[in-house]
Write a structure and sequence with these properties.
Blueprint: E1 4-5, E2 11-16, E3 19-22, H1 23-44, H2 55-84, H3 87-91, H4 106-124, H5 128-153, E4 168-169, H6 179-192, H7 203-212, H8 214-223, H9 230-252, H10 260-276, H11 292-315
Parallel strand pairs: 1-4
Antiparallel strand pairs: 2-3
Helix pairs in contact: 1-2, 1-5, 2-4, 4-5, 5-9, 5-10, 6-8, 7-8, 9-10, 10-11
Length: 322
């Protein structure tokens, strides 16, 4: 039986004159809305350090200054520049801001959130790790929505798995296929769907042709290699599983010292991300034997250990304002 050929459209709604609602953007909106209501619930039960009346403003600032700026700059610094060099920025400075073309780094987002919340905590005289505990409870939902959007976009696909029962054939992986496969696809399209041949000069064009033409989709089914849907693996492990665990810890240990949930989240995220990277096609140069995702996850694990050490110190004190 042929594997599923990915043909989902990243655009949910074409609104007007090029203004489009994309699944990727909607995933961020859903994440922030869910975070707002869940954090309000925790605040009302005295399970978070920020008062409910201030959560709306906090989420808005967090989204802009922490998640978006941190995530985008992280992508530019960790992935774009090492791969394409500084020339891409010099030739097109707006490339730094072009988020709608894709390119957000979760590790950069974590760093941006950490910096923003540190200064927010100092300004409002709140516990930095206390704020972090609440964010680490809801952050997995953002990861889950984001990975689902990655799957819909057909990006960040998995490694080759030709015999996998639930394998997916991603048209965007065309450039990673062998020369023989690429030439066979071009030849078949020239014979069976010549009107789409001019779209096959890039993975993005081929992906669009697969969505538009049943014939091109059939050719893709015949020649592309099935791969792991690693985006869904990440969405479940880094998203659904981590959220359920973080929520359980908050409910089970309401008086846990500040930083405990941060520590557990950072360590488990690093471990799970490292594991899932074995099923994900590397999207940039390796660092030794590690993918960049695995390499940066090492720092997440170290940060998690530091948070747990901090929480252990607080647990030995009769009172704490972290």
């Amino acid at each position: 039986m042929l594997a599923y050929v990915h043909d989902l459209d990243p655009v949910l709604l074409d609104i007007w004159r090029g203004i489009k609602l994309r699944w990727y953007g909607l995933s961020y909106l859903m994440a922030f809305v869910a975070a707002y209501y869940l954090l309000c619930y925790l605040s009302r039960r005295n399970l978070w350090v920020i008062a409910e009346k201030n959560i709306g403003d906090f989420i808005a600032l967090l989204a802009m200054l922490g998640v978006f700026i941190g995530g985008r700059l992280g992508y530019v610094l960790f992935y774009m520049i090492p791969t394409e060099g500084w020339a891409v920025i010099r030739e097109d400075p707006m490339a730094v801001l072009r988020v709608w073309d894709g390119g957000m780094a979760s590790h950069g987002g974590f760093l941006g959130v950490a910096i923003f919340t540190y200064f927010y905590a100092r300004k409002h005289k709140l516990s930095w790790t206390g704020i972090g505990d609440g964010i680490c409870i809801v952050a997995p939902l953002g990861l889950m929505f984001g990975r689902i959007a990655n799957f819909i976009n057909g990006e960040l696909y998995g490694r080759v798995a030709p015999d996998l029962a639930w394998g997916v054939k991603f048209p965007q992986a065309l450039a990673t296929e062998s020369y023989t496969v690429q030439e066979s696809i071009l030849s078949e399209c020239a014979d069976r769907a010549p009107e789409y041949l001019n779209m096959l000069d890039s993975p993005e064009g081929f992906t669009e042709a697969v969505r538009l033409s049943p014939e091109v989709k059939q050719i893709a089914a015949e020649y592309l290699t099935a791969r792991h849907p690693s985006q869904l693996y990440e969405g479940f492990l880094e998203g659904t599983f981590l959220f359920a665990l973080m929520w359980f810890l908050r409910m089970r240990y309401p008086k846990a010292p500040h930083g405990m949930i941060c520590g557990v989240f950072f360590i488990l995220y690093g471990v799970l991300r490292t594991f899932v990277e074995h099923y994900r096609e590397p999207d940039s140069a390796m660092i030794g034997a590690l993918t960049k995702g695995q390499f940066y996850s090492l720092f997440m694990i170290l940060a998690g250990i530091a948070f747990l050490w901090h929480a252990k110190r607080l647990s030995k004190k009769p009172a704490s304002d972290a």
